[in-house]
């Protein structure tokens, strides 16, 4: 338990000291009487605030997932375990005030939604939550530190982005790219043809077969899905804002690729752990991992880049989303280009212009968008 003087408490404490000094010079008993009243108020405030904080319990949701710029939508609950009124309760975290309750009935409970807006992605643990009370006079604040289980996971705010280039197209039902052939399954009907040996019976188009020209089977447009690999730098620039912008750009590009029906691979240069994401995935796990990315300077090295390239599919288009561009990144980019791999660079808008890379497209990202660099 921690006790601190509030701003109001410090003001009245200073007034009390001044009145005491004045009483010494004037020998006025009235001033001493006023000082004793104030001292009694401080004692009452100390006792009630201590009781409130000791007997009020806080219940929080196990895990909350929101996006940057949002408030938590799940309610928190305060419960008064005593037979006395509790009041002026405040729930705080190092990031700001979460909620306040003016009065809490004996053995009562109240739910509230946290007021704090989370502007920055990351994981905010409940282990640093504190419960405070200044009841009833606001002179002294009793604070109880609470190590609660659970966390608030703040996802990066993704935005609309142009779908990245893909390569290594494979047949997949639901793919948004059309091939030149006809297949026996798909979502876009292309016509009928005579049945051949090995064709499944469920593909028979009975309406056409009834015309007396033999059994006919349905055919569909060939649907293709590409492959896109994202290699992300975790903070070579040493700037937290650029890293956050890089994470937003990575998330936005991943979702743009998934919406196009591509197979996505994602790897960061710190952990070098490859994540495989199927087309049209909902993205919950992606955003959760992006929220937990921490700064790691010095990860943009040639050895790490080559390991990342070796782990991704050799048929995929490679997208480098970097916080800086150095000699190692240039060397690996030119090598991939010489191997006729589809390569694209995404760099922060503050990055200096890069020299010609043999036609490799270069985009710059900011807090809320991507722009192709000419």
Beta fraction of the residues?
Answer: 25-35%
Counting DSSP H or I runs of 4 or more residues, the number of helices is 7
Q: Can you tell me the overall shape?
A: elongated
N-to-C terminal Cα separation, in Å?
60 Å
Protein model, in words:
This protein has 374 residues and is of the alpha+beta class. It contains 7 helices and 23 strands. It has helices at residues 7-26, 29-55, 206-209, 240-259, 284-291, 302-311, 327-338; strands spanning 2-5, 56-59, 63-67, 70-71, 76-80, 86-93, 96-104, 109-112, 117-118, 122-125, 129-133, 140-146, 151-155, 167-171, 177-183, 189-194, 216-232, 263-268, 275-277, 317-321, 343-348, 362-365, 370-372. Strands 14, 15, 16, 17, 18, 19, 20, 21, 22 and 23 form a 10-stranded mixed sheet that branches. The protein has a 5-stranded antiparallel sheet with strand order 1-12-11-6-7. A 3-stranded antiparallel sheet has the order 2-5-8. Helix 1 (7-26) packs antiparallel against helix 2. The model has no long low-confidence stretch (mean pLDDT 88).
Summarize the structure.
With 374 residues, the chain is an alpha+beta fold. Helices cover 27% and strands 34% of the residues.
SSE diagram, text form:
Layout: E1 2-5, H1 7-26, H2 29-55, E2 56-59, E3 63-67, E4 70-71, E5 76-80, E6 86-93, E7 96-104, E8 109-112, E9 117-118, E10 122-125, E11 129-133, E12 140-146, E13 151-155, E14 167-171, E15 177-183, E16 189-194, H3 206-209, E17 216-232, H4 240-259, E18 263-268, E19 275-277, H5 284-291, H6 302-311, E20 317-321, H7 327-338, E21 343-348, E22 362-365, E23 370-372
Parallel strand pairs: 3-13, 17-18, 17-20, 20-21, 21-22
Antiparallel strand pairs: 1-12, 2-5, 4-9, 5-8, 6-7, 6-11, 10-13, 11-12, 14-17, 15-17, 16-17, 18-19, 22-23
